[in-house]
């Protein structure tokens, strides 16, 4: 049984924390604030916002800030995740950020998505990851 199944996720609260994070977004170029929030396997709740750059391609997605916060506040693995725009609407993590989330996911991690609650394996099937590298080394 996954961590999320043992302790059902309060998605309304997690979404509210993500929405609060959008208020800190630095988005002078896209004007599209994003807030991400997640529950860690020790029960911590973390969040992050997007931070853009005049060199557009260097912009940091909200998930980047969230993963930095994960490590800054003690590490662990993500068990539940959501991200929203400035209106509080759930959005999908971009492809790069699905890869980023996968790397730090607990088995069975769940995400609130535009098509309902999905596991990390559903949103990035057959993911390339640390195990791929480990298998090659052996
Ligand atoms: N963005 C995120 O923060 N996360 C995503 O998963 C999708 C896109 C941000 C990047 C950029 O600052 C803005 O949304 C518009 O693309």
TrEMBL record:
UniProt similarity note: Belongs to the cytidine and deoxycytidylate deaminase family.
CDD domains in alphabetical order: cytidine_deaminase
Any single Pfam family the record assigns to this protein: dCMP_cyt_deam_1
Broad class of enzyme this protein falls into: hydrolase
Catalytic-site annotation from UniProt: 63 (proton donor)
Name by which UniProt lists this protein: Cytidine deaminase
Reactions this protein catalyses: 2'-deoxycytidine + H2O + H(+) = 2'-deoxyuridine + NH4(+); cytidine + H2O + H(+) = uridine + NH4(+)
The species this protein was found in: Marisediminicola antarctica
Residue sites binding substrate per the record: 50-56
GO CC annotation, single: cytosol
InterPro entries membership: CMP_dCMP_dom, Cyt/Deoxycyt_deaminase, Cyt_deam_tetra, Cytidine_deaminase-like
């Amino acid at each position: 049984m996954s961590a999320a199944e043992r302790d059902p996720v309060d998605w309304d609260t997690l979404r509210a924390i993500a929405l609060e994070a959008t208020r800190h977004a630095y988005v002078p170029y896209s004007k599209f604030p994003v807030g991400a929030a997640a529950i860690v396997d020790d029960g911590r709740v973390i969040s992050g916002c997007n931070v853009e750059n005049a060199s557009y391609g260097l912009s940091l997605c909200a998930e980047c800030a969230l993963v930095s916060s994960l490590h800054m506040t003690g590490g662990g693995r993500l068990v539940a995740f959501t991200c929203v725009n400035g209106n509080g609407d759930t959005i999908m993590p971009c492809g790069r950020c699905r890869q980023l989330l996968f790397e730090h996911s607990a088995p069975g991690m769940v995400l609130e998505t535009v098509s309902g609650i999905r596991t990390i394996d559903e949103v990035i099937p057959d993911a390339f990851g640390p195990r791929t590298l480990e298998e090659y080394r052996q």
